[in-house]
Amino acid sequence: MLSLVTAALSTAGPQQGEITVGTCHYLLQVAPVPQEQYATLYLVDITARRAAEQQLAEQREFYEAILKELPVGVSVFDAQHRYLFVNPNVASSESLRQWMIGRDNFEVTAYRQRPRALAEQRQHQFEQAVTTRHDVHWEETVEEQNSTNYVLRRFHPVFNPDGSLRMVVAYGVDVTERRLAEQQLAEQREFYETILNELPADIGVFDPQHRYLFVNPVGIKNPEVRAWIIGKDHFEYCAYRQRPIELALQRKQMFDQVIGERRHVTQEETIQTPQGPRHMLRLMQPVFGPDGAVRLIVAYGLDITERYLAEQRLQEQQEFIRQVVDTSPNLLYVSNEYGHPLFSNVSFADILTRSNHLQTRETDDTPEAEELRQLAEWNRVVLATGDEISGEMPFTLASGEVLQLQVVKRPLQRPHGVVEVLTVCTDITELKRAKREAEAAARARENFLANMSHEIRTPMNGVLGMAGLLTRTPLSEQQQEYVAIIRNSGTHLLGLLNDILDVAKITSGKLEMERIPFDLNQTLQAVGQTIGFQATGKGLHFTIEAVDAPQPVVLSDPQRLSQVLLNLLSNSLKFTEQGGITLTGKVLADTPATLTVNFLVTDTGLGVALDKQESIFSTFTQAYADTSRRFGGSGLGLSISSSLVEQLGGHLLMCSEPGQGTSFGFTLTFAKASGEEIQTLQQTRIEEDLAAAVEGVRGLRVLLVEDHDVNRQLAQLVLESYEAVVETAADGASGLALFERNVYDVILMDIQMPGMNGLEATARIRQHPDVVRARTPIIALTANAFLSDNEKYLAAGMNDCLAKPFDAAELVRKILALHRADARPTRPLFALTDLERTARGNPAFVLRILESFLTHTPQVVSQLQDAAAAADWSRAAGLAHRIKPSLKLLMAQELHPFIATLEDATATPAAREAAAKQLLELLPLLLWQLQHYVSNTPRIPRNGFPTKQRPAT
Asked: Do the beta carbons of residue 204 and residue 299 sit within 8 Å?
């Protein structure tokens, strides 16, 4: 205390210090009076404050100790994503934790030598949590040196009472063991499902409510129906299969019996099919849980039709034994216990006379002896068991011909007690042959369509999508050429697949053809580029003779023409081992309106014999039996090509001779493209380089509404590679909710989605009260890319259509085209000088005025549209007068003349109509510019610290 007084007197200034007396704490203030050489002392008791500070420190230490001991990683970030706190579960090293404080996510990730993509992902989730003001959680994959770890992370934003962001609390839980367990469980499930799928029995699993949980391919062959049936009951399945409701009731009764009696139940049922009655043996087995409740019902179904028919035949034979013996073409005989025939019918006696079985001993090493041993063995089984036995077996004739017999043996109880064997044999040779041929044909069609669809369409989306992304990476010229060939070939392959899956449309003449302008020579060059590399690889000469016309731009379907030429060239390439292939486009007639061209593909290959030439145009047919094995191919190419040429207006002709090569040709007459169409085509030829494309798409806000995960991820990846800002939704309702909250430059809308589909969502968007947002460009993403479908989508309010799988460049081109068509003028339609003068420099007041204008003007625009459509110029004048003061305050000089014309009672209706049209075009643009300004202007909240809103446009 004395030292403070001395210091105060010596410095002639006040002094302050803290002193402690026992358990009390005081703040001592010394006020000197230098002239009098004394000082006034003031004591303030701060004991309570010091106790509160100590308690606060203890609480802080307590909570920090809890956070440090938590078995999860906990981090706290400020609004700039800088670390404020890190517990040991995040970083075990105390020095590392201290180093992390104040540093951001990217610095820490780089220091810990982890991929930048990891930091970018965390940054994105951080921004999403802050923007949405809700928790964001995701699963993160962290690649360590010797392992891969999975971490469940969550960002929890914490806000101050005034709404500003205070902090973001992050949690991280290592779920690696759970993921590994899930993976092991999935593998086990796949293992057991594989067993069930491979069992030669109809197997289904139901829940206690009789809903399907699983069904194997024997039960339902069609994979789409198998997927559809999950969650459905027998009533829905029978309705889908158009089977009588009595069958569903019978199965329901059986199911209820299993549930009620808690035991397995077996019964037979008969199903009427186009091929006749199908007899099934059904068994249902309950599966109980640990609590004794029924958990599952496992159902087995065995097709016993053949057995049923055999039993039926035997019963009829017993009833009409004499008639059967006298008239039946079946082989029938009765043998004793030693296998010696005791009785036979005429058919059996006849076949024995045509065979050597009577002269053969069972010990001989001949086919006949093996057949006798088989019959003897069946006899022994029948006699030993007393049961009927049936089976198929060969029967060799003396001529060497082998018949296929369906053999049925059963014991025959004679009146005197001796058991004999009744044998009935049916010659099923022709039936088996016909069945094999029918099954082979069906398998050929089914396998081809299924394999082509699965093996091509499944990877094609990834191939084309990733090839598109690859083109925008640094590549050499040769690599660019390779990628171009991949993309061209993939596109044509996809088109071919679509045609194969729609053969019915091709053959019925309902295939839709495009009619767009294209350059014939560019088409020939594109086709040639695809084939040329392969021809060179085989050591063949490949020549293209271009169409010699001043302007070879015509109207037709370039994809179909390319498909035909590719089919023919691929065919030539397949069967040509030396020499060369020539593709020629020869002009036959050139008129002001049309261009007639003969297309000819000539090769020096194997050639085709005259008697085989007609058959190769048939579906699933090739010239020679070993063609597919030697050269590959489906046997569909020429059939499809012939149909396509006819659709294009020509006829495919063939000229070939074995050893002399083959020529395929057809002649088409095209309508010439107009000057405007040629100019449009030339404009579309201008390929934007990567920088221009990125610049065009960069920053565009895109809403992607797509229910298919892979398609959604691919589209998002493509757009984000062009630096677009993409938000995604998995269905129409979610997409509409995002649209209501945000403003987008372009919307990509899938058509077929669960719940609200793309057409319904589009209709809702077009009805939005904000006329600017209601005009947001929408591109339909569709797998039904036929002309009639596209017309339907455009009529529903969509701006363009894009077929899946899409080409990345085509997607970007369509987005750029729509965005440029919808682009706002670069000149500003407003100025804020007068408004800022009125606001006396208060920016918050300026923003409130602008927001009020943005809120109320869209309704005026809508009413003005209605008034103009009804030619109600009196009402239009009133509406124009209502917004006139606001436009004047905004210095929207360009709109003033049109306001004046609408207000002018002496103006003609035509003048007012023109003014209304101009005003209705400029008002939405003015609203867009104001919205853009407001969304990108920093806000000044009451705490005085500026914040930046997330851009809404």
From this structure: yes
